[in-house]
Every structure is written in structure tokens, then in C-alpha cells.
Amino acid sequence: MKRFLLFFVLVFPFFVSAQEQFSVYFESNKHETTKKQSEILNNWIAANKESKVVAISGFTDEDGTNAHNDSLSQRRVNFIHNIILKSNVKIREDFKTRSFGETHKQSKNKAENRKVVIYYILPKDLARENEILGIKPIAVPIAEIVPIEEEDMHFPVNATLEEKVALAKPGTRIVIKNIFFYQNSFGMMPTSKPAMDELIDVMTKNPNMVIEIQGHICCIDADRRHLSLDRAKQIRRVLEGNGVAQKRVKVKGFGVSHPKYPIPEANEEQALANRRVEIMILSK
Length: 284
What we know:
This protein has 284 residues and is α+β, with helices and mostly antiparallel strands. The protein folds into two domains: 7-132, CATH 3.30.1330.60; 142-283, CATH 3.30.1330.60. It is built from nine helices and ten strands. The chain has helices spanning 35-47, 66-87, 110-113, 129-133, 150-153, 161-167, 193-205, 227-241, 268-274; strands at 7-11, 20-25, 52-59, 90-91, 96-99, 115-121, 173-175, 210-215, 249-253, 277-283. Helix 2 (66-87) links the parallel strand 3 and strand 4 (90-91).
């Protein structure tokens, strides 16, 4: 049927902008790729293991009935989607399928219309995923947030703080390593600067993110001097001094009430794990 372009789109239900895109082409009336196009797709997959797919659009040319092209475009989307799922390339869970009828123009070259377009976000841009997708943060009451331990998120090995934040959900706790304080003090040691710079950078790049800084201490039976809270407050002061609004940073001191290992600790490694600073993502 002429003058109609039918396609199905596997897409997140918000406007997608500023993402990368990659096209795979099909033979007429086929929903599986040729050997050449399969090789092209596999090369893209190999180069984008750490990227995240946010949408997949399937197109047909104008030959055939609406019903036929409707089904064909969906089968093309499903074919590519299944390959991506098996390849372990990251892909958003909240996809939908849509048909847009004649609202998209066709190329005069029919071969260019028989395609699937993959929209994706590069690893360097994942921290801005919601911004790119046009998603506005939804505030979740703190009382309703369920804490998620960092270990349960299964972050990639050696993931940076920025990468962890990009993957984190509200409630996720992330240990901020290499923040050191003088003994029995909330004074921060100069060796903490790289870790603080990284935290400042992440907060700056995620202007809508709200966190809770959670302080923990080790080695004693009670935090009678509220040292864990004072250390959390000191980190907030440093963030404020670097342009992070106070309203975006809550603080809490847990003392020794949430140890990773029983107190007294058996060794310094256990003491270090208990003596930590975490951030909990409240909203992004």
C-alpha cells in the first residue's frame, strides 16, 4: 500500500534525544539479517559492550499491506532485540512497542527503508542517561526508600563512582573509599582529596541528585561523641564549599550500629570495612 511507512519501535516511553544510533538493513520481506549485516551488527556489539540501548526502531518499505508491514517491522525489532539480549549489551528494562503509521517519510531508495535503528548511550554519557532521555526525577519520600547494599548491585569490577551512580537506584548505598580522618577527630586528612574531588565531580554532573552521607566508625562499643555524624557533616561542608547545595546532602551517623563485621573486629581489614563513609542515593 503506497504512501504509508509502518514501523514498530521498542522504546522507552519518553522523548529520546542526544543519543547515538546504529542501523541494520534487511532484504525485502525478510526479518532476519543477511550474513554481511550480521557481521556488521556483531562488530557493533563487540565495540559497545558497555553502552546501553535505549530504543530499537523497526522500519519497512511501502510494499505490501499495512497489516503485513506492521507484522514485519515488529518481527525485525524482535529479531535484533533477541540478539542484543543474548550479547549482554546493556538494555533498558522498561521498553514499549509502538506503531507510527505514515508520520515518517520514506527514502526514495527502498533498501534504505528496510532497517532497524538501534539508539544507544555511550558509557561516557551514562551518568546523564535520565537527562538525555528527558526524564525528570521523581522525589521518593525517604521513609519509603528501601536500602540496597552495594554488593547487591553487582557493579562492574573497578567501576568508578560516576559509573556506580549511573547504575544505582534510589536506596543504593555506595562506599566512598579513601576518605580518611585523623584519629578520634572529624578532621579530614589531605590524602582524602582525590576521593572528595571525585564525589564533588559526580554531584556536579548530576545536579538533581540528592544523597545521604552515612558515617560509620569501628573498634568501640558506642559512638558517645557522635563522631560518625560529625564526619558526615564535615564531608557535607566540603561539598557545600564546592558549590553543592546543602539541600541536596542529608547526613546521618550510624556509629557502630551497622558494622560489616562483628565488634571487636578480628583484624585491621575488618576494622577498615567497619570504619567507612557511604552515600545513599535518595533521588537522581
